Amino acid sequence: MILRLFLAVAAGLLIDVPEARLFTTPVLGALLFVTFLSIPLRGLRIDARFLTVLALLNFVVVPLVVGAITWPLRDDGAVHAAVLLVLLAPCIDYVIAFSGLAGGARDQLLAATPFLLLGQMLLLPLYLGMFLGSSAVLAPGPFLEAFLLLIVVPLVLAALAQRSRWADVWERAGEKSMTPLMMATLFLVMAGYSAGALGEWRELLAPAATYVVFAGVMVVLGWTVAGVARLSTSARVSATFSAVTRNSLVVLPFALAMPGDLAPVVVVSQTLVELLVMVAMVWAVPHMVRRSGV
Questions:
Q1: What angle (nearest 5°) sits at the alpha carbon of residue 136, between those of residues 130 and 141?
Q2: 82: which of 15, 142, 204, 209 lies 20 to 30 Å off by Cα?
Q3: 3-state secondary structure string, the chain?
Q4: What would the DSSP string read from start to end of 80-125?
Q5: Contact at 8 Å (CB) between 111 and 238?
Q6: How does residue 260 score in pLDDT terms, banded at 50, 70 and 90?
Q7: What does pTM read for this prediction?
Q8: 200-243, pLDDT tens digit by residue?
Q9: CA count, 13 A, side-chain hemisphere, 227
Q10: Higher pLDDT, 53 or 148
Q11: CB atoms inside a 10 Å sphere around CB 164
Q12: With contact defined as beta carbons under 8 Å apart, do 274 and 90 qualify?
């Protein structure tokens, strides 16, 4: 799966098709639909301790870390806002797959997805206003539109599909289409914004370095906090992945609402950095487990 995702990214970078941006939101909505489809929405069960650790990491620890490491970017308002936007939003889609590859508690992370979504949608405007000194960083119209199209509609459709007589068919179809939809989303994003990403490479050096620092810090803090909370080994792995992985694809429509053309490119560049980080974590985290003897 990892190789397929990298091939999708590489193909998108080689093809400059701005029109691909028009298809990003529908395909991303479909990806979130199949993600929600795999969540047991009717009989949702989640370990309270695991959920508490995820909330602590993503909505308390991460904002403190982000506030500290993005301080050098504050002189460039567009870049600073875009980096904050993407780093403050925990991932809800391919983190589940990567966590599973590293031996994480995939089912628990799946069950926590609605709570992570709700938390970031409620807190993201608050945190952005706090860090940037304005409560109107995100234009209300595009924010609400993205929330409805990418969160509410896929979630409602997934709940209806699970209640239908063809629930098993929907579930099998969702499992088979998850990776192709991830590939399609990454390809469309890269194809739509590759010219901007390559043309603005100097402006992307500082954000890219920030993303790497964030990942390194959050691997350590995620692993430590989950260990202090005495989570099981698999839950500890998933909590660490959740602390590191960000919601770049879902927040992209919000970046489009920001002034100028640089914000979407800064957000997209996080996806490139994060894919490399995920590959490294799939290899490194199991070694951390063996060395720690948990």
A1: 135
A2: 15
A3: CHHHHHHHHHHHHHCCCHHHHHHHHHHHHHHHHHHHHCCCCCCCCCCHHHHHHHHHHHHHHHHHHHHHHCHHHCCCHHHHHHHHHHHCCECCCHHHHHHHHCCCCHHHHHHHHHHHHHHHHHHHHHHHHHHHCCCCCCCHHHHHHHHHHHHHHHHHHHHHHHHCCCHHHHHHHHHHHHHHHHHHHHHHHHHHHHHHHHHCHHHHHHHHHHHHHHHHHHHHHHHHHHHHCCCCHHHHHHHHHHHHCECHHHHHHHHHCCCCCHHHHHHHHHHHHHHHHHHHHHHHHHHHHHHHCC
A4: HHHHHHHHTSB--SHHHHHHHHTT--HHHHHHHHHHHHHHHHHHHH
A5: no
A6: low
A7: 0.84
A8: 667 788 999 999 999 999 999 999 999 999 999 999 999 999 99
A9: 11
A10: 53
A11: 10
A12: no
Two tokens, residue 30? 């479909």
Per the model's pLDDT, the better-predicted residue between 115 and 93 turns out to be 115
DSSP helix/strand/coil, 200: coil
Q: And the tokens for 69?
A: 């490491």
Average pLDDT over residues 177-183: 86
Report the distance separating Cα 292 and Cα 285, nearest Å: 10
Residues near 287 by Cβ (< 8 Å), separated by ≥ 6?
none
Q: Using 50, 70 and 90 to split pLDDT, how confident is the model at 135?
A: very low
Average pLDDT over residues 33-47: 74
Other Cβ atoms within 10 Å of 253 Cβ, number: 20
Task: State both tokens at 225.
Answer: 């906090």
